[in-house]
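Narrative of activities, Objective 1.

The group set out to show that a structural description can be obtained from nothing but a protein's sequence at a throughput compatible with the screening campaign. Below is one input-output pair from the validation batch, recorded exactly as produced.
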Amino acid sequence: HRGQPSTHDLDLAISVLSSLRVRREVAIPSYDKSAFGGQGDRVPQDQWIQLNRDGQPPIDVVIIEGWCLGFKALDDAGLVALWEDARNARDQDQGYRGRLGHNCLDDVRFVNEALKGYDAITK
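Output recorded for this entry:
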């Protein structure tokens, strides 16, 4: 149950990255994957690491990891075509092993739309 598109705090990510870009002091959020029986959650803000403080060398390189980054939303026609192909393969029992064909189109569109928000992080 890790981070489907739309479950991340993109405003926070953009704010932190913007602060790092201009070398402004910023608290780096931390995530505890063991919280809530493995569901995970952010640690309290008072436990976040402070960067770019007076007297600290400024951060020059930032590496961001996340499977949503780099995935691009599809145009609606392309999305519908892929979804219909997946549904047809599933319905015709052609050994379909994917997940797309098992989801309703509205849910697929929701995730696709949410992917657009990640573009602000990778530009």
